[in-house]
Description:
Layout: E1 2-3, H1 9-16, H2 18-26, E2 34-35, E3 46-53, E4 56-57, H3 59-64, H4 66-73, E5 78-86, E6 91-95, E7 102-110, E8 115-119, E9 122-125, E10 131-134, E11 140-144, E12 150-158, H5 160-168, H6 180-193
Antiparallel strand pairs: 1-10, 2-3, 3-4, 3-5, 5-12, 6-11, 7-10, 7-12, 8-9, 8-11
Amino acid sequence: MFKDSQEYAFTKNLEENWLTIKQELEQISPNDFLDWPEKYLYGKGWQTFGLYAFGMKLQKNCKLCPETTKLIENIPDMVTAGFSSLLPNTHIQAHTGYPEGLLRCHLGLIGCDGCSLRVGEDVRDWQEGKCLVFDDTTEHEAWNRGDRNRVVLLLDFRSKELEAKLKSKPKNQTQDSESPASKGVWQSLKSWLSK
Length: 195
């Protein structure tokens, strides 16, 4: 489900500084973006440039984006951050994210016209300079029906509200983020993003 982005103070700071972030993004070579590893979700056309991967700072990439790095490092409980690019005619199929207890924020930067995100039953369009916040564990999908690459600043942050709900659930109803399957995905993504 989508959240009200104004409930999170850091979104105002991101929106006020979106042009600075966009300027740093535009200086990154397209060759520095990597295909998202879960290709079964999209086939081709989804690439990322990581800054933080699950709490681990990607030093080389952060040096290329010093102002963006300062902004994201001031976000309380930020876990993952980077740029996410969708080429025209790319569709990321419906899926759910992991782990529970995190929320995802997208700050629209480039080519948002014709690009949409469905979370649950709600469909919203990205807007340049505006944030969308949503629960990544809710089924979602994204598509670029525009004629330009769509690029957002993507970040995950811990949600005290969601973590409290998880603690109140019986153990057998919570997803075990240390299960072999999810641990393998996390380790694979950490390794991939640190290249």
